[in-house]
From TrEMBL:
Alphabetical keyword list: Signal
Species: Cedecea neteri
Protein name, UniProt field: Nickel/cobalt homeostasis protein RcnB
Signal peptide coordinates: 1-18
Pfam families tied to this protein: RcnB
Length: 102
């Protein structure tokens, strides 16, 4: 019974997490007086050492896929491809506070 309860808890947590992360997805945003959309090339500045977010878990962001990394552009977390420099996902920084509001 304990194993079943633990399994149900994990499943509910995963569903809740997935739901909460997609609620904050955005398809466009502004940064540095420029409008960005998914698929646009990210500014070169994001590829300097200080812009790679390694603590993505505490920000409630999903794990970056291979050859991508999370960065931040004026109120928006962006998932950027390391090779073609394109933005593949954008999430409002409000996701950081999601657990505080529950």
């Amino acid at each position: 019974m304990k194993k079943l309860t633990a399994l149900l808890f994990l499943l509910m947590s995963a569903v809740s997490y997935a739901k909460s992360s997609t609620l904050y997805d955005v398809d466009h945003f502004r940064a540095n007086y420029h409008e960005y959309r998914i698929g646009d090339k990210a500014p070169d500045l994001l590829f300097s050492a200080g812009y790679n977010i390694t603590a993505w878990k505490i920000r409630h962001l999903p794990a970056p896929s291979k050859n991508t990394f999370w960065s931040y552009m004026e109120g928006t977390y962006v998932l950027v491809d390391k090779h073609d420099h394109k933005i593949s996902r954008a999430i409002s920084s409000d996701i950081f506070y999601v657990k505080m509001l529950d």
